Amino acid sequence: MDNNKRLLPFATGLLLLGVAFFLLYQRPVSAEFSGSTMGTRYQIKIADLPREIEQTYIENQIFTTLDQVDKLMSTYKPNSDVTRFNRAAIDESVIIDKQTLEVIQLSKLIYTLSNGAFDITVSPIVQLWGFGPEFKQNKLPSANDIQRALDKVGFDKIQITDNPPALEKLQDVEIDLSAIAKGYGVDQVAKLLDTHNIENYLVEVGGEIRVKGTNRAGQRWRIGIETPSVIRSGARQAIAIDNASIATSGDYRNFFEVEGKRYSHTINPLTGKPVEHNLASVTVVSRSCAEADALATAMSVLGPKRGFELAVESKLAAYFLVRENDGYQQLMTDSFRDIVDNQTKPH
Ligand code: FAD
What we know:
This protein is α+β, with helices and mostly antiparallel strands.
């Protein structure tokens, strides 16, 4: 048998090995990143990071994207757009970034949809009850203090201009984007991943989540909705979603108690007080995470009856957990039930 024939199997083996190595090298890798932002934690899970994208590069891009939202929309940073506006004088026009403008315009839409239940001008009341950047207080403000804060509430006190993007105070008013900007940060990271042709990912900031495609095992991302209790933890419901966002708002994480009564950080802009109903949490599934974030807060303010009515009227995919006796009554809109029953994509 001449040499060529003897070498053939060896050459074929080498070729196959080379092809296998090439294909293996082409296969995307999975990656996970986490860190702190906006006073909370973020985590990103990518199931198919193209090999040509350096992990440190995409990790830095993700952090920069979230840091930009923090820098623009934080009430905890002295030079953010929000703080500069809150410190401005009446009739002073404050130039803001186009991202901040985008969030304020969406806030106005949800303010209108929720008849003022979602209202970013609640900032003075949030501060008064000790849920803002200032000192924490666990004492109840006086009726006069509440009225003084209420006098500063109302979207009609803000003048928004698009070009250049700017805000102007028509009366004494301050804004707080805590109930929408985290969701917006999630959307911006999702947009970043999309531009890098990453098709399968989960982005989470402080409990607000947006997913696309599948996890490393090729299954839809399954998201647990936690039991709204500081005592009993664990998922109450788990749903598999794709190309959608999910946000939950509730009275069980950020609250204080006085004489056995709970005061949470979800404020009713009409009363100037923390909400006083028995709706423990609201979860909304929507395309945009900023929308889901703000809608969950809006429903949380409106309460189990009016909130659920609005969710049904607006065809939202929403899941309510209402505190009763020793457990929870769960309410699902049809769109949410479709997701649970058929695991179909949200509308
Ligand atoms: P959500 O229900 O999503 O939001 C509740 C918050 O929304 C309340 O805390 C209040 O601020 C506001 N709110 C209450 N009622 C209404 C209403 N009716 N309409 C509209 N808004 C309402 N926290 C820190 O401790 N340190 C930080 O450095 C810090 N930086 C932040 C930067 C940014 C850009 C943002 C958005 C938040 C930051 N936070 C910080 C706040 C922290 O992330 C919040 O506790 C968190 O955003 C509250 O979100 P949630 O999901 O718990 O509740």
